[in-house]
Specification:
7 strands, two-stranded antiparallel sheet, alpha+beta, 348 residues, three-stranded mixed β-sheet, single chain, 50% helix
Length: 348
């Protein structure tokens, strides 16, 4: 049997009648033909409840009622198997309530297998709570499966409430709940109803604040949590730690990377400024040359536009004398201190 089961198809049922204080009462029991192990156990459990409810064992023909009514709860291959098990080998053999219990257990072992009880207990002890089941659904399902355990083999025993808490529930709750489970001392509880109420509170807490719970468990796992940053990382890895060599390496690498990126970003701007100043310098040199005389030497001015006003700034200039009858030439020099120098060649 598993925690989560698919919706099985509806099973047929048989109606049994009993008279109580002159009143006829009807009881419907499931019919088992060829289904899951749980379906078989469910039918057996219903039949036992029927026997105990109407005190069938106290009737005069109790054994006959047992065999007759139980056979009506079987169909197909299951009924054939039952007939083979309780067939009388000789005429002296008698059917009674004790023989019925032996035959019923033989039928159960044949359908479920001899290791059914041990396998089912191992499943309960080792299977975590399914995520899609709430606390109440999960624990109620555990109790339901536990009620079938005594039916699986002779002298089979179910878990006590204390055993269910210690061996099944506490060992299979989600990992995020374990700290709360110990904090509330739920492992010391002895009643299932108390466990359900407390675990429901924990379940809602974890759903409402999942990140805070993760941080809480993370902090508890840190050996030397940082005291400056809410203890959310190791002190050895903190940037405030002067002995953190990792941080120095990262800072150095980040600085080198940033410097490279700044140079790459500045190169296009420098080229653009260089072309703009070059055009301005050429225009200024032509204007100055048109105003100059044949043998005169003058200092030219670099005009800078600042809004609508113009401001003349003296520029450093080198005068070079070249042979006569040479055509006027202009050479542009490299920038110096943020400005440009122009060379004017004037014929003698």
């Amino acid at each position: 049997m598993r925690y989560q089961v698919s919706n099985s198809k509806e099973t047929n049922s048989v109606e049994l009648k009993n008279t109580v204080d002159g009143i006829v009462e009807k009881t419907k029991l499931s019919i088992y033909e060829d289904g899951s192990d749980e379906t078989c156990l469910k039918m057996i459990k219903e039949f036992q409840n029927y026997v105990n409810t109407y005190n069938i064992r106290d009737e005069e023909n109790a054994a006959r009622a047992f065999y007759h009514n139980f056979r009506r709860c079987l169909a197909g291959a299951a009924r054939d198997l039952w007939d083979q098990i309780n067939e009388l080998e000789d005429e002296e053999e008698v059917r009674d309530e004790l023989s019925f219990d032996d035959h019923l257990q033989e039928l159960t072992s044949a359908i479920l297998g001899e290791d059914a009880l041990r396998n089912q207990k191992d499943y309960l002890k080792t299977t975590p709570k399914p995520d899609k089941m709430s606390v109440k659904q999960w624990i109620n399902r555990i109790k339901n499966i536990n009620s079938y355990l005594p039916l699986m083999q002779p002298n089979g025993r179910s878990f006590t409430e204390e055993d269910l808490i210690a061996e099944v529930i506490s060992k299979n709750i989600p990992a995020a709940w374990k700290n709360f489970f110990k904090m509330f001392k739920l492992h010391l509880e002895t009643k299932i109803k108390d466990i359900i109420s407390e675990l429901t509170v924990i379940e809602e807490q974890v759903k409402t604040h999942p990140k805070s719970n993760q941080n809480l468990s993370h902090k508890k796992q840190l050996k030397t949590p940082c005291r400056f940053h809410n203890r959310n990382h190791q002190w050895d890895d903190c940037r405030q730690n002067p002995k953190n060599q990792k941080n120095d390496d990262k800072t150095r690498n980040n600085g080198d990377n940033n410097h490279g990126r700044n140079n790459a970003n500045n190169n296009p701007n420098r080229e653009e400024n260089r072309r703009t100043e070059s055009d301005r310098s050429r225009h200024h040199s032509r204007s100055s040359s048109s105003r100059s005389s044949g043998g005169s030497h003058e200092y030219h001015n670099i005009t800078e536009q600042e809004g609508k006003n113009q401001k003349k700034v003296p520029s450093s200039e080198i005068l070079i004398t070249i042979p006569a009858k040479k055509r006027f030439q202009e050479v542009q020099c490299l920038p110096r201190f943020g400005g440009f120098r122009s060379l004017s060649f004037i014929s003698e």
